[in-house]
């Protein structure tokens, strides 16, 4: 299991910020997906914005996205829990989201076999992520 900071950006600044982080930290952006990549149900104004980006620097990672629910609201940081199996994803999601607020139910996404978002019972944002194998 890995715990990875997940940065949420307002005003569509995610792509620009991660390009800067990659250059400044000497890292590599290993994957990027826009909201438009997620399917036709995404509102047109959000389609070009980043839904998920992953930067690797040495043995460390940070991930991020443009805030979809409130693009003009406050930027936030979540902790992404990267798991090794569907069973772990389901178990940890159920345990940690109990008594909290599920923001995105655990399901398959463009980049993950399982992905879900929630605020725990203390109001802290978390993500569960079982990343699809990279080619």
Automatic annotation (TrEMBL):
PANTHER family: PROTEIN YJDN, PROTEIN YJDN-RELATED. Residues 2-128 form the PhnB-like domain. This is VOC family protein. Gene3D superfamilies: 2,3-Dihydroxybiphenyl 1,2-Dioxygenase, domain 1. CDD domains: PhnB_like (cd06588). InterPro entries: Glyas_Bleomycin-R_OHBP_Dase, PhnB-like. Pfam families: 3-dmu-9_3-mt.
């Amino acid at each position: 299991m890995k715990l990875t900071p997940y940065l949420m950006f307002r005003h569509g600044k995610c792509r620009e910020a991660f390009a800067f982080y990659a250059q400044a930290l000497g890292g590599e952006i290993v994957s990027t997906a826009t909201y438009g990549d997620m399917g036709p149900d995404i509102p047109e104004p959000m389609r070009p914005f980043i839904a998920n980006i992953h930067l690797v620097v040495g043995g460390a990672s940070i991930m991020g996205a443009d805030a979809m629910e409130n693009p003009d609201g406050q930027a936030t940081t979540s902790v992404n829990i990267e798991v090794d199996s569907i069973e772990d994803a389901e178990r940890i999601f159920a345990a940690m989201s109990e008594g909290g607020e599920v923001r995105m139910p655990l399901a398959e996404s463009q980049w993950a076999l399982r992905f879900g978002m929630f605020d725990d019972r203390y109001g802290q944002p978390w993500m569960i992520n079982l990343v699809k194998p990279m080619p």
